[in-house]
Amino acid sequence: MTDDRSGLEIAEYFARLAPTYGAGEYYRKRRAAVLDALVARGRQFPRLLDLGCGNGTYLAAFRTRLDPDFLAGADLSLGMLAAAKRRSAADLLVACDAHVLPFKSAVWNGVFCSHLLQFIADLPRCLREIARCLSDGGTLIIAGGEFGTAERLKQMLGDARWSAFRSELPRPRGSHRHRTLEDYRDAATAAGFTVEARRIPFNCTAADLAEFYRVRWLPLVAPEPRAAMSTALDELMRAHGGEEIAMEEALLLCHKGSVDAGNLSGF
Ligand SMILES: C[S@@+](CC[C@H](N)C(=O)[O-])C[C@H]1O[C@@H](n2cnc3c(N)ncnc32)[C@H](O)[C@@H]1O
């Protein structure tokens, strides 16, 4: 369970990102790749919850691409939820901690968690809660886990510049960024899910990656290091801007209850 202090810190951290999180080409291409993969699967989620929905960029995409009958978002950060409300995509927005879900059992056909689980203190408890709220045959979709963006930036900036850059990237207390996809897979299996792992490829440019760092990280950095980091990103743009970079988003599809073998293929 998130303790009060780290919960508050995480909520405040993300409230500062509420105006910008998910903006720009890198995020757009990553979301599009995930959405394409879900749509291609043809699986329907009439009642869909985006847990850790942030400012609602996925909610807006779900509304247009998946068209669920009932779409809800839940998040710890009131700032993020206020931004999600402005997108007007969800039927319901709920402020809650993902360790204790304020939903009846078996109400959702799909629960989507994108880049949430690294902020969860008690992963087994959170996954048990999600399993409780999913209907039999429902699916938990976990996106994220291994990002690859830091490695790419390191290659382009060089070791010394990257390590100065990285030392300025603020993370909230209670972030478990070293968890791997295997950690999530093992925890979901232990919570009773049947897990499929998929890697979703997408391409971006070095310019998109530089923009991602501006959007995701620079709003959180103090003014002085921010100016130096911004200069480093400008130089990277000049040297590499149009270069294509192959990226991957990891997806874990975690099925609850009896699974039709036909549902496990074609994704
Ligand atoms: C990295 S952002 C991802 C936002 C969104 N899922 C996306 O991919 O665009 C993580 C989100 O999880 C939320 N979060 C972190 N810990 C949480 C918790 N214990 N319960 C609910 N939401 C939480 C944060 O407030 C933030 O909005």
Written description of the protein model:
The protein is of the alpha/beta class and 267 residues long. The model is unreliable at 261-267 (pLDDT under 50). The protein has helices at residues 4-17, 25-41, 57-65, 78-87, 123-133, 149-157, 159-167, 181-190, 206-216, 223-240, and strands spanning 47-51, 70-75, 92-95, 108-114, 134-143, 194-205, 244-255. Helix 2 (25-41) runs parallel beside helix 3 (57-65) and helix 6 (149-157) packs across helix 7 (159-167). Strand 1, helix 3 (57-65) and strand 2 (70-75) form a beta-alpha-beta unit. The chain has a single domain, classed as Vaccinia Virus protein VP39 (Rossmann fold), CATH 3.40.50. The longest helix has 18 residues, at 223-240. It is built from ten helices and seven strands. It is globular. The protein has a seven-stranded mixed sheet. It binds S-adenosylmethionine. S-adenosylmethionine binds at residues 2, 10-11, 14, 22, 52-54, 57-58, 75-77, 80, 97-98, 114-116, 119-120.
